[in-house]
């Protein structure tokens, strides 16, 4: 009896095993066009249910099955990933950066002249050690895009200024200086607008004179408009180019005016990424987003471009040039050059909390909106005489009060003198690595303009 029961039990097990194998084969045979079968789908569902800590009921199993099928449909499309047209189009444009044209000639650079193209590979590597900067692929594409601009324009110095994020598009900003005498001609928008306004006023006065009686003229005159600084001077010393993505066209930003800088101090608004967009703010801004971006670049550069003390010195060291700079309007010294005799300070001294070893090497922007103060009364004698003559031809004597010139801190002023921000220091410093300080870099960050960083390394 015992042997018979054992044989019967073994036979039943063998029968059930064959049935299970047949059922499994049937489930495996039920597959879709992509090769996924029902057996492996149920197997994945059961594995996930057993792996979860909470109990899995029938409704959870149905939702899990639907999610797995939905994820599989989104990740694969007949064995291929779905293509994004915008990403594909951008990749085709950036592909041209890696193709060298055989007919393209490299600019000839003198041996004694520094190449205008910066070593962005090393710069981005040092910034990466400090925990900031761009990713490797983005940095490589940007490097090639800057090279394409330097090869086309007569650039003496090129420097990657930074990246500003916009709502729709971002801005990659390049700071340049042109070779003297090789500047690109730029239309004076301010003069053109003034000519148009004057012509409209003259036409309006002529029409009023023909149709209306002569009325007493108001003696009030609006204050004179502060003229913008010329190219290679003051806030317009540098020329800036922007692009939305590496590989797209570089666009030159217009020169900035004092009116735009003063207005930019009074507003706070986000960038859209469209240079031609209207700036929605109150009080209204005199210009488009391109002008607003240029004004903010001037303000940020003036406040955050710093260097270790002694790295730069005023002028080129010549006595004649120093005398010329002292004779400049307002007595401002704007020119500086690299000190060849500079001895690098230890990295630990550059990260002291008192920031005594760092200085500003960009000129201070006066409340007037210029670097060099402009006297509004210097050319106003004739206008004042006309203003003081009344209708009877009698001359009214008026006190001419000389305008007080605006002064700011001189160039190469220590950043330790910067005004604190709500009781907090204007600058923060740190080492990139406390574990390996021998090969660390010094990082100085602005607490006024968040995102503005300076990194120092080497000797």
Automatic annotation (TrEMBL):
It is found in: Cytoplasm, Cytoskeleton, Cilium axoneme. Its main location: cytoplasm. GO terms for cellular component: radial spoke. Keywords: Cell projection, Cilium, Cytoplasm, Cytoskeleton. Pfam families: Radial_spoke (PF04712). GO terms for biological process: axoneme assembly; cilium movement involved in cell motility. Residues 183-210, 317-330 have a biased composition (Acidic residues). Residues 183-228, 308-336 are annotated as: Disordered. PANTHER family: RADIAL SPOKE HEAD 6 HOMOLOG A, RADIAL SPOKEHEAD-RELATED. This is Radial spoke head protein 4 A. It comes from Paragonimus westermani.
């Amino acid at each position: 009896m015992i042997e018979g029961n054992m044989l019967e039990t073994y036979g039943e097990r063998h029968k059930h095993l064959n049935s299970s194998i047949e059922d499994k084969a049937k489930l495996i045979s039920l597959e879709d066009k992509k090769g996924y079968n029902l057996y492996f789908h149920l197997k994945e569902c059961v594995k996930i249910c057993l792996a979860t800590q909470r109990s899995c009921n029938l409704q959870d199993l149905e939702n899990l099955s639907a999610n797995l099928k939905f994820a599989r449909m989104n990740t694969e499309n007949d064995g291929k990933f779905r293509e994004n047209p915008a990403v594909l189009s951008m990749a085709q444009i950036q592909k041209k950066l890696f193709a060298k044209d055989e007919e393209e000639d490299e600019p000839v650079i003198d041996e004694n002249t520094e190449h205008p193209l910066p070593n962005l590979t090393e710069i981005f590597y040092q910034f990466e050690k400090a925990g900031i900067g761009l990713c490797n692929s983005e940095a490589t594409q940007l490097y090639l895009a800057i090279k394409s601009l330097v090869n086309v324009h007569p650039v003496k110095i090129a420097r990657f200024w930074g990246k500003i994020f916009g709502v729709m598009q971002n801005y990659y900003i390049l700071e340049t200086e042109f070779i003297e005498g090789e500047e690109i001609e730029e239309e004076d928008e301010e003069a053109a607008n003034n000519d148009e306004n004057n012509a409209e006023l003259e036409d309006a006065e002529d029409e009023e004179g023909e149709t209306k009686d002569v009325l007493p003229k108001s003696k009030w005159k609006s204050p004179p408009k502060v003229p913008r600084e010329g190219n290679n001077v003051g806030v317009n010393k540098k020329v800036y180019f922007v692009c939305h993505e590496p590989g797209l066209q570089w666009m030159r930003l217009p020169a900035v005016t004092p009116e735009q800088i003063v207005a930019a101090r009074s507003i706070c608004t986000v960038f859209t990424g469209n240079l031609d967009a209207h700036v929605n703010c109150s009080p209204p801004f005199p210009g488009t987003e391109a002008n607003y971006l240029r004004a903010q670049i001037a303000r940020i550069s003036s406040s955050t471009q710093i260097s270790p003390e002694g790295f730069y010195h005023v002028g080129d060291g010549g006595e004649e040039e120093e005398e010329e700079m002292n004779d400049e309007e307002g007595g401002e010294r704007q020119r500086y050059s690299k000190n060849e005799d500079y001895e690098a300070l230890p990295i630990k001294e550059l990260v002291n909390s008192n920031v005594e070893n760092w200085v500003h090497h960009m000129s201070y922007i006066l409340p007037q909106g210029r670097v060099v103060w402009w006297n509004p009364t210097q050319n106003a004698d004739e206008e004042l005489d006309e203003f003081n003559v009344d209708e009877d031809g009698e001359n009214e004597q008026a006190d001419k009060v000389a305008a007080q010139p605006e002064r700011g801190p001189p160039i190469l002023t220590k950043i330790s003198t910067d005004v604190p921000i709500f009781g907090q220091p204007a600058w923060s410093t740190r080492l990139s690595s406390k574990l390996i300080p021998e090969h660390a870099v010094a990082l100085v960050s602005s607490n006024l303009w968040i995102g503005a960083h300076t990194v120092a390394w080497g000797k």
